[in-house]
Structures are given as C-alpha cells and as structure tokens.
Specification:
Helix 6 links the parallel strand 6 and strand 7. The chain is α/β, with parallel strands linked by helices and 283 residues long. The longest helix is centred in the N-terminal third of the chain and has 41 residues.
Amino acid sequence: MHFFRNRLVVLGLVLLATVLLYLLLPAIRQGSMEPFLNVQRMGLTGGSPTAPTARFPKPVNITIRTGQLAGDPPLFFRETISVDAAGKKMQPRLQVVLLHGQAFTSKTWEDLGTLTLLASHGYQALALDLPDSETMKTDQNRTNLLLRFLDSLGVQAPVLISPSMSGRFSLPLLMLHSSRLRGFVAVAPVGTKLYSEQQYHSIQTPTLIVFGALDGSLGTQSLKNLSQLPHHTVVRIDGAKHACYMDKPREFHQALLIFLSKLNRETLSQHGRKKEILPEEKK
C-alpha cells in the first residue's frame, strides 16, 4: 500500500510538471522566437535592426529583393534595400556587386549572410546570377553583360567581388573599364595569367586580394599575378581552401568590411566630407 501511494505521488508530480510546462512553453517559445518572426515579417534574412552609427542615426530594416532584367540572356539578381524607421529608403555608403563561382549562385551570398551584413554596415549589396561563361564567347560579350547589369540598375562606381570562375567576367571589365569600379575584391579568380605586367600596372583601382592558405592552385596563381596591381592589399585566410569565404566566412567578412570602410573614408575625403569612424575600424 505504501509503495502504491509513493507511485501515486510520483505520478502526480510528473503530471503537475507536465501541466506547468504546457502552460509556460508558449511564453518561452514566444520569447526566444519573436526576433526571428519579426525578421521574417520585415523581409529580413537575419539579425536585428542595425545599431545607430554616424551615417545611420536610426535603426534600419533590411529587405533582400529579387529581380530579373530582360535581355539575352536575362539576368537574375538579388539586392538589399535599407530603410529607416520612418520607412524612407537610405542612401548607401557604397554599392557592392557580388559575382559567384562555378558551383554557386547569388543565393550563396544570401545564405552566407553577406548581403545582410553589408547592408547592416551601410552598403547596398547586389548579387548577380552569371550565365555559363562558355555561352559568352568573348571578353567583350562578358564585359557587356556586366555593363548592362550596372547600367540597367543605375549602379555607379561599385566595388566588385569576384571569386573563382567569375574572373572570366570581372577581369575583362577591370582591364577595359576600370574607371567604372570603385574597388575590386579578387577571391582567387580564374584568368589572371592572361594579362601582362604592363596591363596590370595600368590599373589604378584599389584591390583586395583574398585567398585561402590551403588553395595551392588558383589562390597561389592569382596572388602572383594580381600582386602586379599598383594599389593592392593581400589577405590570406588560414585554414581555408579555394572557396575561402565559405570555409571561413567570419574572417572573410572582417577583411571585406575593413577594405570597404577604407574605400568609404577615401571617398568622403575626396568629396571634402567629414570622415566616419566605422565600428569595424575601432577594433
């Protein structure tokens, strides 16, 4: 009888705990999930409203919008739209165009958090889905494709990020229309051996050369060739292979933000405006 009573007490306690958990679980879930639900509602891909900065005095909402430009071929892209608390579209510090490697698409940059990260630091990010480079037979065709994209969206003097295969598009643009670019971020792109020392020396575009320390092929080759550019900075990401931004996204993002902040400060200085001290430069 005593054993039976003890079992009843234990069962009663278990039942009471179950009831309490059932009553409290919605509140617990609401508290932990509400930021994510708010993110979805506002069209964000992650994170919370941006902390105020000198250029962004109010929190912003960041939306990643997709679009497609008509033409041959049609161009699918993703872009970030930042608005302030009043719903007003905010002007970016710089525009950043992201290309992709052979096995990736524009969604790679969204999934990696790069688009949202750039927008949260005051930059507009635009990621383009490239067509198969084999269907674009000449450098001029590939260059025209990028120019069509920039002109159609009114992109002025962007920073161009180019990993791996996208070098077939970005390098001809750099060589033929370097004045259209505010900066160039080369992540072990293909095709760097196709240009001469003289051609590299003629380019004045500030360049960030990024490569994975474990990339002994294109990483090493692109570093050797792109180091002939007169205004370049090199970042080696330890423990990373060819797609170093995938292996070590935090290190890649940090290097990218520092490079962009320096370009932004130079741009402000050239226009006679007060320089900003950005969060990533205070570390």
